[in-house]
Design a protein that fits this description.
Blueprint: E1 4-7, E2 17-20, E3 35-37, E4 44-46, H1 60-77
Antiparallel strand pairs: 1-2, 3-4
């Protein structure tokens, strides 16, 4: 389960960039838009879906490439086949 992904010095990103699936505090009360994971006293609230948007040449594809590189590296270390 991906809660937060941060990276820097990767493709066109020099400064740290963060992609978070964590729901902000105001969203926790709206159960239609968040998923609660874990025990009631230590529950994490996550977004079930997210969108990446921005201007042309803003780095959207490079963020996906960075995430894919990490996922591929993790799968290779666990002996799984590569991600297409």
């Amino acid at each position: 389960m991906l809660k937060r992904f941060s990276f820097r010095n990767c493709y066109s990103f020099r400064e740290e960039a963060v992609f978070s699936m964590e729901a902000v505090f105001a969203m926790k009360d709206n159960v239609d838009f968040v998923v609660g994971i874990g025990e009631s006293d230590r529950k994490n609230y996550l977004l079930p879906v997210a969108a990446i948007y921005g201007a042309n040449a803003g780095g959207k594809s490079n963020m996906i490439r960075a995430l894919r590189d990490v996922a591929q590296n993790v799968c290779e270390r666990k002996g799984r086949s590569q991600i297409a």
